[in-house]
Amino acid sequence: MSGKTVASKRTNAPSTQAERPVDETKGPLDAAELADAAIAAALVFSLLAIGRLLAAGTAFQVLGTVVFAVLAARHRTRTVVLAVTGTALFTVLLGGIGPLTQSIVAGLFGWTGGVSLAKKRSIPRTIALTLLVAWPPVSIATVGFFAVATELRELTFENVANQWDGLTNIMGGIGNMIGLGNADRVKEWGADRLDTLFRWWPLALPFAQMIISMLYALLVRRMSRRVLRGVNDALGPVEPLALETASSLVAPLPLSLVDSEIRRRDYLVNPSVSIAVDDGAHVAVAGRNGAGKSTLLDVLAGIVPNDDLVRPGTPGLGHPGGTAYVSQRPEGQVLAPTVSEDIRWGAPDDVDVDGTLTLVGLEGFGERLTSELSGGELQRLALASALARQPSLLLADEITSMLDPVGREQINQLLRDINDRGVAVVRTSHLAGDLDEADEIVTIGEPQVHEPLGLLNTVYVGRPLLTLTDVSYVYDKGKPWERQVLVDIDITVHSGELLLITGSNGSGKSTLARIIAGLRSPTSGDVELAKRAPVPGASSDSDPGKIWRAIAFQHARLQLLRPTVEAELRSLAGAHDVNERGRQSAERIPLAVAALGLTDLLGSRVDALSGGQQRRVLLAGLLARGADVFVLDEPLAGLDDDGRAQLADVVDDLRRRGAAVIVVSHDSSWGHERVTRVLRLDQGRLVDP
Q1: How do residues 334-357 score in pLDDT, each as one tens digit?
Q2: Which residues contact 83 (CB under 8 A, 6 or more apart)?
Q3: At 550, is the secondary structure helix, strand, or coil?
Q4: Which of these, 285, 311, 385, 314, lies nearest to 345 by C-alpha position?
Q5: Most exposed residue of 145, 566, 585, 609, measured as fewest CB within 10 angstroms of its CB?
Q6: CA distance 566 to 621
Q7: In angstroms, how far apart are the furthest CA atoms of the chain?
């Protein structure tokens, strides 16, 4: 979604609330508003459905209200109306008037809470807005409903009376046990009050709902403020400016940042960073993993606030003529099911889809499903979507990390071409060829201490661990759009082996990696696993079973599910297992941490790590797990020189212990002294390397 900031001489640091525009009624809903409305509607519907299933509807209604409040704080009222309408229509599927009523109530209270947060209103003013907007329709609807549904009203009142009787009986029993007594008098007093309220219910109900509305408003405000802060930290604050107003405020260049602290949330990422960018500039940002390269791009995009950043207007993230951003995780920027739809999402109506795809090397990909694209193809698609908005500033984070050499040169040439047209490029990279393309290199953080890779001592290549015979794979087999990805693959993997699988983007490398790791079954052919050696300390008659396999995905963040590094390592290693294997995994964690240089990061939150650091955490967890076959899909992407050297040492250690390591990578130069075999895929077939 697009982050947009208020025009000023600087990109001012936004608070946890987003400032409302002067006139929020102008302009149609943009792509970000439509997407967020759809997501909110689906999320609230799911919460209400779960609440109905667990008989805890009120609790889950509060959570739904928080969702609508965050939506109201970040977008225009029309966005909230669309989301509430969608939720209300969905709730018809649940049956009954209860879920429908809950969705409307959540929308009313969510809107008042969100608007109050966005406009920084005090608690009394928040309560006043709630009583003015949400309380009257809820009370009128309740009184009107009970006036018509007399039998249901009597049943409800009888239920309340029975609950009071039950509560006082319990209290009386406890009182008699401890010698207090007088429970009957309390019971009679309460029954008389309830009888009075039931007789005057048209007045009593609105009064009770007023008190409840005030408490509800306070609860929603407290919960929504915390959630909104997290959403804004992750996605950047959003202001729903009218398109004609926004276009006049967008002016991302020239920009400058001088000796500024770079922070993300509460973490100091880098104490001093300086950068200056003008029209047509090509600036490369270099530095070690964790130095703050990605955070710097977030600052330039307006996602992370920084008072020291000077520019003439707003960054205009996602706006024509503004800033376009391609992140390290291109899969997170894909919104549509097909490639052509993704290009059109939020782009100008006259966008040349085919021409844009041709520019990035995806000619003919328009009708391809985005879910079937490789990591490199996703990077190209993310770049195409960015260029479709005709930006004046392109921010590219490790944009060639998953591309083959031919694709890397093609993208570098494309960046040179847009430079010639006056588009400024700020990119991060660890690849020397990418850095050489820049007019200026800005190095942040401490310099790398690169140690050349030492040669591995002789490793014995032993018994077969895994054999693929005539393995083929077809996406959507039997459907008109089926596509063959692998054809008749024959591979035998031995213990102690380092096997490198290379090939161009889309050649089938990641699909083959998943089949080897056991995450996918081949459409045809066989995968045979050897028996593993018994676990030391296990009973002599235990079945050793098949070999253990582990895979590190291209996108490391998808496998990191715990909040802190230490918790993630224990989870990945299986150290919580109450058996011999779990004990051994726990013992290997400190060794894996030391091998990958993570000692100082154990207490860090995973979200605070750079992409390269997250990849190291994943590799350390898998190393501690102690599998027999390790499949590493593009493990070098985002790693600095030190990280590459550490990876080589880890691979050496795994092989010495008898494991096989299969590396899927475009970088055939890495570890070439260590590789026992190189396999190259071309259009799904193994060919001579």
Answers
A1: 888 899 998 988 787 788 999 999
A2: 36, 37, 38, 40, 41, 44, 68, 71, 107
A3: strand
A4: 385
A5: 145
A6: 10
A7: 94
CA distance 572 to 621: 5
Domain boundaries, the chain: 1-240, 250-443, 464-687
567 alpha carbon, distance to own chain's centre: 19
What are the phi and psi torsion angles at 633 (to 5°)? Answer: -95, 110
Pair 64, 47: CB distance under 8 Å: yes
Contact 631, 516 (CB under 8 A): yes
**What local confidence, expressed as pLDDT, does residue 13 receive?**
35
Q: Which of 568, 682, 679 is nearest to 625 (CA)?
A: 568
Q: Are 378 and 331 in contact (CB under 8 A)?
A: yes
Cβ neighbours for 648, distance < 8 A, ≥ 6 positions apart:
453, 670, 671, 674
Q: What is the pLDDT of residues 200-255, one digit of tens each?
A: 888 888 888 899 889 999 999 999 998 988 787 666 666 544 444 455 588 899 99
User: In the CATH scheme, what is the homologous superfamily, with its name and number, of domain 464-687?
Assistant: P-loop containing nucleotide triphosphate hydrolases (3.40.50.300)
Q: Residue-wise over 235-264: b if at least 16 C-beta within 10 A, else e? A: ebbbbbbbeeebeebbbbbebebeebebbb
- Given a contact cutoff of 8 angstroms between Cβ atoms, the answer to whether 377 and 356 are in contact is no
Task: Return the SS3 of 400.
Answer: coil
Note the pLDDT of residue 539: 45
Residue 367, Cβ neighbours under 10 Å: how many? Answer: 10
Q: Collect all residues with Cβ–Cβ distance below 8 Å to 537 and sequence separation of at least 6.
A: 580
Grouping H, G, I as helix, E, B as strand and the rest as coil, residue 636 is: coil
Q: How many CA atoms lie within 13 A of 177 on its CB side?
A: 6
Cβ atoms of residues 143 and 150 within 8 Å: no
pLDDT value at residue 291? 86
Return the CATH fold of 250-443: Rossmann fold (3.40.50)
Distance (Å, whole) CA 509 – CA 236: 35
Task: Tokens for 634, please give them.
Answer: 């593009």
- For the chain, helix, strand, coil in percent to 5 are 50, 15, 35
Task: Give the Cα separation of 664 and 632 in Å (integer).
Answer: 6
What is the rounded radius of gyration, in angstroms, for the C-alpha atoms of the chain? 30
Contacts of 108 (CB under 8 A, 6+ apart): 133, 134, 137, 138
Q: How many CB atoms lie within 10 A of CB 280?
A: 16
pLDDT attached to residue 3: 34
At 308 the pLDDT is 92
Bin 419: left if φ > 0, else alpha if -120 < ψ < 50, else beta: alpha
Rounded CA-CA distance 605/265 in Å is: 11
Q: Which residues, including other chains, have CB under 8 Å from residue 220's CB and lie 6 or more apart?
A: 62, 65, 66, 69, 109, 110, 113
Q: Which SS3 state, helix, strand or coil, does residue 547 take?
A: coil
Give me the residues of the chain with pLDDT under 50, please.
Answer: 1-24, 240-245, 452-456, 538-543
Among residues 154, 367, 634, 673, the one annotated as catalytic is 634
Strands, E assignment, 495-589: 498-503, 524-529, 549-552
429: closest CA among 641, 625, 621? 641
Reply yes or no: is the peptide bond before residue 522 cis, omega within 30 of 0.
Answer: no
Equal fold, 250-443 vs 464-687: yes
Helices (H), 200-261: 201-235, 243-249
Of the candidates 380, 416, 392, the one whose C-alpha atom is nearest the C-alpha of residue 323 is 392
